[in-house]
Design a protein that fits this description.
Layout: H1 3-10, H2 57-60, E1 76-79, H3 80-86, E2 92-93, H4 95-101, E3 111-114, E4 124-127, E5 129-130, H5 132-140, E6 144-147
Parallel strand pairs: 1-3, 2-4, 3-5, 4-6
């Protein structure tokens, strides 16, 4: 048995804090809340933006302009040169194959193929979007680029 195996078992379960069990426990009387103030009161919750009654910073600053952040589509990006490295000639490339090859994390995000690098292999590529240069390079190599 090694020392790191002992400590991982010892530190696994943290004892529950039992408050209000007398002065000998170290958590009697005020139960670790201190004296007076909002923190000692029942129902108090320390939120990140709470500034003690002062108008919160994010409410004080003006909000102008437009942002499309909530509705923006984030694409998983793959370059032509990566496809050339990871796939054999005549292979079928789709999001599932890209995950197996380790080029994208998962199939939830739509895939966009960009045209950086060179491609000499004939590939059948299926993705959500292609850049113009990527589509041209795939077709020039004798492959097909299908948007799905």
């Amino acid at each position: 048995m090694m020392i790191h195996e002992i400590t991982e078992k010892v530190g696994r379960h943290k004892k529950r804090k039992r408050v209000g069990r007398g002065p000998g426990s170290g958590l009697g009387k005020t139960c670790g809340r201190g004296h007076k103030g909002a923190g000692s009161r029942a129902g108090y919750s320390k939120k990140a933006a709470h500034e003690g009654g002062q108008m919160a910073f994010f409410r004080r600053i003006p909000k102008r302009g437009f942002t499309n952040a909530m509705f923006r589509t984030d694409y998983a990006i793959v370059n032509i040169q990566d496809l050339a490295k990871r796939f054999e000639d005549g292979a079928e490339v789709n999001p599932d194959m890209l995950v197996k090859a380790g080029l994208i994390r998962n199939t939830k995000d739509p895939v966009k193929v960009l045209g950086q690098g060179e491609l000499s292999k004939k590939l059948t590529v299926t993705a959500a979007k292609f850049s113009e240069s990527a589509k041209a390079k795939i077709t020039a190599a004798g492959g097909t680029a299908t948007e799905a």
